[in-house]
Q: What sequence folds into this?
């Protein structure tokens, strides 16, 4: 039995639907009482850029799922160093994420037996 | 006949011709079922095509007809008393809808499911494999 999972979002909101699917699966797991810790890392940090709108380039908006995630009181984490390496400061990031350090990511990974990367 | 010594769920994210994930899932499922376990393969995104009946007869020099094999294995392992196979094949409803797949497009034994039902599978399973490139 798995009652918690760590979901790593590695892809940006455009170019593939992987991050979209990651948020969708997170909600499905939440409904089934599997607590999901979502971590945006690598290019996945671009999902949290303030005002990002994939619909402008014909990709589906993730806003619906992000709103649902927030409603479920899931606070996605974001690896601050990965954002900084991509020129993003905390001020560039949307409010729904909590920046964490890479060492914090290590603690999260150690706390989960079930880890999946999208 | 009683199944389910343990429960294994396998998420497949890519189409059958895209990666070897579907083949890997089937081979793991065969081994697990052979040991008496219950396995569910869940297709998400392009993974739903593993259940598409119109791919049963796709012929390619390098690719065995995986979809047909899945259907045949579920049929072969079906319990005559309950009509159920220890291998289940579910596909995400939204992913199916996005790809114009209806229940009638699926191979026998495959069912349209949902991410919340997938969540319940993960919760109930002893092990879950996520096959994502």
A:
């Amino acid at each position: 039995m798995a009652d918690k999972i760590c979901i790593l979002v590695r892809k940006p909101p455009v170019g593939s639907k992987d991050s979209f699917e990651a948020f969708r699966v997170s909600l499905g797991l939440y409904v089934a009482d599997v607590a999901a810790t979502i971590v945006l890392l690598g290019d996945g940090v671009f999902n949290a850029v303030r005002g990002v709108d994939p619909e402008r380039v014909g990709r589906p908006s993730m806003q619906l799922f992000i709103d649902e995630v927030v409603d479920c009181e899931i606070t996605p984490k974001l690896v601050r160093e990965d954002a900084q390496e991509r020129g993003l400061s905390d001020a560039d990031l949307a409010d729904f994420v909590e920046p964490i350090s890479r060492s914090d990511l290590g603690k999260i990974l150690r706390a989960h037996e079930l880890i999946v990367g999208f | 006949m009683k199944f389910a010594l343990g429960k294994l769920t396998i998420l497949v994210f890519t189409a059958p011709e895209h990666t070897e994930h579907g083949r890997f899932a089937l081979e793991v499922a065969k081994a697990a079922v052979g040991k008496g376990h219950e396995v569910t393969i869940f297709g998400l995104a392009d993974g739903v095509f593993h259940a598409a009946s119109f791919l049963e007869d796709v012929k390619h020099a390098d690719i065995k007809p995986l979809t047909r094999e899945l259907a045949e294995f579920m049929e072969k392992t079906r319990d005559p008393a309950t009509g159920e196979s220890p291998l289940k094949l579910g596909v995400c409803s939204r992913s199916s809808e996005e790809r114009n797949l209806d229940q009638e497009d699926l191979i026998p034994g495959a069912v349209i499911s949902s991410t919340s039902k997938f969540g319940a599978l993960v919760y109930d399973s002893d092990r879950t494999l996520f096959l994502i490139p």
